[in-house]
Amino acid sequence: MKPAPIDYDTVREMLRTATPDRILRFIGKSHPADIALLFKGLEPIEVRQLFDILFSSRRADKTLKELPPELLPDILELIDDEKVGRLIVRADPDDAVTFIDSLPEERRERVLALLDPERQAAVREIINYPEGTVGRIMTTEFMALSPDTTAQGAIDKIRERGELETFFYLYVVDEAGVPIRNLVIAPPNRKLSEMMIADPVKANVFTDQEEAARLVSRYELLALPIVDEAGRLEGIITVDDVIDIINEESTEDMYKMAGLAEEDRVFTPISRSVKMRLPWTILNLLTASLAASVVGLFEGTLHEIIALVTFMPVIAGVGGNGATQTATVIIRAIALGELEFASAWKAIVKQVSVNICIALAAGGMIALAAVLWKGSPFLGLVLAVAMIFNLGLMAGFAGAVIPLLLKALKFDPALGSGIIVTGLTDAFGFLSFLGLATYFRRYLT
Amino acid sequence: MKPAPIDYDTVREMLRTATPDRILRFIGKSHPADIALLFKGLEPIEVRQLFDILFSSRRADKTLKELPPELLPDILELIDDEKVGRLIVRADPDDAVTFIDSLPEERRERVLALLDPERQAAVREIINYPEGTVGRIMTTEFMALSPDTTAQGAIDKIRERGELETFFYLYVVDEAGVPIRNLVIAPPNRKLSEMMIADPVKANVFTDQEEAARLVSRYELLALPIVDEAGRLEGIITVDDVIDIINEESTEDMYKMAGLAEEDRVFTPISRSVKMRLPWTILNLLTASLAASVVGLFEGTLHEIIALVTFMPVIAGVGGNGATQTATVIIRAIALGELEFASAWKAIVKQVSVNICIALAAGGMIALAAVLWKGSPFLGLVLAVAMIFNLGLMAGFAGAVIPLLLKALKFDPALGSGIIVTGLTDAFGFLSFLGLATYFRRYLT
């Protein structure tokens, strides 16, 4: 069903022994996305060879843009400035920006300086848009015609341009769109103004790319026109960009929740992964220290009733997971556009209610376990109440509020939320469990 | 930029006072995706009214299919069998299946029995495909022509069919595809056989929908042909289906990691959320009990050196988060098709290495804290070694292996992985920390 993958070992063998032409014939029919995968495990010298072969047949740009983003910097590092410059000239403007973005700061300027002034200005315009906005990823190659153009006139223009691949709609200057497919059945003399979708859904160059993806997904569009502040058409975002955005944003949500940087992929070099995870580990040490200092407050009680210590991981662990569940539901709802601030209060109340119900059940079970195992109904009661406080109130509340709070503060709602909510439930779990135990200590000994 | 949302309060007011015609004029120009959102907060009687208005203007099917999946069952419950039957007849086959799926088992048969035999057979054929396969969600409305058809002949056929909306490619019987856009610039007499994409990427009816989405995304297709076991074209998956699949699968991954059922959305009724989360909470109680029983083994040591108890949450918390990070990286890589079993070993080694480096740093910090705070270098050493065991070895290993193991066992790689890996790191963290402390107890007192 799916195209057979290119045999990796054969390519390595050929890179050692065969002529560039033979190699090109071997891999030439494959889709760039499959060719790109070859770069994954090659030695530097082989990377350069393969790049040169693709470059000389003008396929390097189409291939490299398919690479997982974490691999691109290492590959571009092996290619000299002059070739990277020509790669950028040949690439579509949005891919050119991807390449520029993968260069280290100081090299970026050096490579940009190699471009002709016009191209340089075009690339600079795009990289001036903040990261995460549609301006930065839109393609500026689109077709805009006047409303008086006839269907046949439009077809002639398309023929002239030759390439049709990235066109889904014709844009009628700054106002409306005509799906190209519709030209197929239009009488030759019909004017675009009679066929156009007036006032189509559009986005601004500074719109968040996630928001643009939501529009394309909700209204089932093939492309979204992007306009500047004055309402002038500046570019388009196509549905395949949207798929990339959605994948990227989903990764980002899962990653941010766990405290991971987006570039920290499965085969990112170890040293880079370590550098990116370390700050999160430090945050985690801090939230864990909060829990530790709560426990420290109760060393006296614990020393007196050492059996309490056994149940600490249960109160903390179940609370932490309950909070993670709640945070996941909220983060996902925000990402899919199902939850706005207007209904936030309703969502918080609902999540806390769910958690209280579950805490009643879990509290009952842990109490029963305490009675059967330690023979102490008072310990059971303390555990059940601590479970309701921690899993019911704290986990439900923190899990729902933290992502909403992060969003209100203009952070990503997922940012470190897993670490924060488990830190909070650890600390609050120990506080309620050991606090109650201290208060009722005479019944527990 | 984005279409103004329909004012919710106005609609509720109109449902009380205005005629159906006026209401229809008010909401009629909006996109079905926006109309669908109105259903979210209506009372049962208003739901029925709004449904009837949409139904009488043949817009109910297009609107209801836009609803978030967790809301559909409650709305269909309010509509009588006969109308649901007619809704299903009018809907596209793939939407019809969505509606059928949202009915409770016993009602499903009752409603199916109302359909004419031909339609009934068509729906039954689709719902016989297992959930999660493309057969179940493909649209069976596509155009297949013989290779001898000319470009003009194809255009005539398209005109005849009238509706063009879901067509991106013409399929040349069972073999190849012609992008409809290409008809625009083709000379009228050119045959489809000269324009077609021979041997296009395709999928089988039993292909996992996630795999189909990966193909569309990787090869930047607008539609993917779906064939049966004999290679006959049975349907297509379009790019807007793919966006839905990707969103759904991303939700699923995040949800499964935290131990959440997919239907457990932000506004799912409380009782249903509780019922779905409870089994996971019980699993969580069990994994937490494992950690608890490990702690129970060391009550003697803890009683003797109560200061140890303060550091327990740090070893467990940081280990748990490290394992969650690793599991997230692996789960995401599997989901995006970046990690296969062939490179699993390499991925495990890499993740463990990263975790060991981080554990060295975190162990150093916690040791320093122990020295400064408790004045005990031995305690510091024990903590550092326990951190390396738990965060370095266990978190890295379990975080990488559990998702791969789940996949090898044909489960979803994310399934409960958050709960499992944090349970393991809790237990192993206590075992290594308290085990080491017990062994070296004479240096610690």
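The mean pLDDT of chain B is 86.
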